[in-house]
Design a protein that fits this description.
The complex is a heterodimer.
Chain A (H helix, E strand, L loop, with lengths): L1 H22 L3 H18 L7 H16 L2 H6 L1 H19 L9 H7 L2 H14 L11 H9 L9 H16 L3 H5 L2 H7 L9 E3 L10 H5 L23 H5 L5 E3 L9 H18 L2
Antiparallel strand pairs in A: 1-2
Helix pairs in contact in A: 1-5, 2-3, 2-7, 3-14, 5-9, 7-11, 8-9
Chain B lengths: L1 H56 L13 E8 L4 E9 L2 E9 L5 H7 L2 H8 L11 H18 L2
Antiparallel strand pairs in B: 1-2, 2-3
Helix pairs in contact in B: 2-4
Classes of the chains: A mainly alpha, B alpha+beta.
């Protein structure tokens, strides 16, 4: 029964991810375009206008402050691509009866800070006006071109190479890009997430020495206690911890909501969709 | 608890700095338009005086020929997902209007960013303007399409 429920939640998440992947694949680059736009305008001493990019950036940041990184877990095309590849890799390993390779946990902890460097570097490049001359080096550009069926990739070799490396990383480590490299993720994880809908646990009610949720977590997070205001910035709202907990001990800060309910998930996806349409994305 | 407070304070600080920055620039912009307008008024007064003198002297200067031939000119170029077609209207030798005729395969957000180049092209009276950061494909498309149209219009 419990596993049936878990399956249904997995299918629901996959369906939402595929929907956003097909119809809103460009939102993560557009929102990050807002960051690049602000940095270049300030660097050039120009005014920051309320453009479509800035609106989308503000909208997604607002959404993240309320609901956590639901966008990352359910709606980001690049995140979904990673989930798909990782699932494929695990499936192949299972068929070939090989043990899947994993990054050591310590290394992962260190690599998590690299995304802040990526963000700082891109912001600096935009600020000093050299970003435009680095055309062809962004793996996101190459991904957008491939997604749009555009194969004129000459001049995009550095971007293509880094995309291939990232895809390889995505296979081995769940949420490899999101956790280690994503500059948009760096912005999101620096946002103060309100405690109402981010996940908490009552550690006192756990099974002794159980660490199921941390081991299942793509970011190896030990969830904060009930009543805490702390928000783990690397939580993608993938909800895997809620499913795995044998005591059903994980819930939102607002304890009446568990955080993986079908209605609540659909509500958040619908709100995000409404936000996109409103922003004209 | 501490993390939440630190993040909130830094977010508010960033928002505060950015909106302060924008306010200062808005102020400066207003002053600049004022200066520009008064310069224009002066220039027009001078022009009126000149033409009065010219009328009295019976000499008329010929209007300078513009760079481009009058008419409507179309240009096409590859944008992000497909072709961007735009129309340049030239009146009395100057670019009077640019409009996008079709850009079916462009994403709305990117296209609206890239469209900010149209006034810039009109101001520069040339397609040699900077592309928009973050919307490189769409804006390069617009730039190239405008260049093609203006090439046709050149005389």
């Amino acid at each position: 029964m419990a596993s049936q429920k878990r399956k249904m939640h997995q299918y629901l998440r996959a369906a939402i991810q595929i929907y956003f992947f097909i119809f809103f694949s460009h939102t993560f680059t557009a929102a990050f375009g807002g960051v690049k736009y602000i940095a270049s305008q300030v660097g050039a001493g120009e005014k920051i206008e309320w453009t479509a990019f800035v609106a989308l950036l503000a909208g997604l940041c607002g959404f993240t402050i309320v609901f956590g990184r639901f966008f990352c877990g359910f709606a980001c095309a690049f995140g979904s691509l990673g989930d798909g590849l990782h699932a494929l890799y695990r499936w192949i390993c299972k068929k070939c009866r090989k043990k899947p390779v994993r990054f050591p946990e310590k290394l992962c902890g260190g690599l998590s800070s690299v995304k802040y460097l990526v963000l700082a570097a891109i912001v600096a490049f935009c600020f000093f006006g050299v970003y435009a001359s680095m055309r062809g080096s962004s793996p996101w550009d190459v991904f957008s071109m491939l997604h749009a069926g555009d194969l004129r990739l000459r001049g995009y070799i550095p971007g293509l190479v880094s995309l291939v490396l990232i895809l390889a990383g995505m296979c081995v480590q769940e949420r490899f890009f999101c956790r280690f490299l994503c500059p948009m993720g760096a912005v999101f994880s620096l946002l103060p997430v309100l405690p109402f809908f981010s996940l908490r646990r009552d550690r006192g009610a756990c099974l002794a020495k159980c660490s199921g949720c941390t081991r299942k977590c793509p970011s190896d997070i030990s969830l904060p206690e009930d009543g805490s205001c702390e928000t783990p910035g690397d939580c993608f709202q993938c909800q895997k911890c809620i499913h795995i907990c044998p005591r059903e001990n994980i819930h939102c800060g607002w304890q009446e909501i568990r955080g993986n309910g079908v209605v609540f998930t659909l509500l958040r996806a619908g709100l995000l969709l409404g936000l996109y349409i409103w922003m004209g994305a | 608890m501490d993390g939440f407070v630190v993040k909130t304070v830094s977010l508010l600080a960033i928002l505060g700095v950015l909106s302060g920055y924008d306010l200062v620039l808005e102020d400066r912009e207003r002053e600049e338009t004022l200066a520009q307008l008064s310069a224009q008024v002066e220039a027009m007064e001078g022009y009126i005086q000149d033409s009065q003198k010219a009328a009295a002297g019976g000499v008329r200067e010929d209007g300078e020929d513009g760079l481009y031939g009058d008419g409507e000119w179309e240009g096409k170029a590859q944008g992000f997902g497909g072709e961007i077609v735009l129309k340049v209207t030239v009146k009395e030798g100057v670019i009077a209007d640019i409009s996008i005729i079709s850009a079916a395969k462009e994403d709305e957000a990117y296209l609206s960013m890239a469209e900010t180049m149209l006034p810039a092209i009109m101001e520069a009276q040339s397609a040699e303007v900077d592309t928009v950061t973050g919307a490189t494909f769409s804006s390069t498309g617009i730039k190239n399409a405008a260049a093609q149209a203006l090439e046709k219009a050149e005389r």
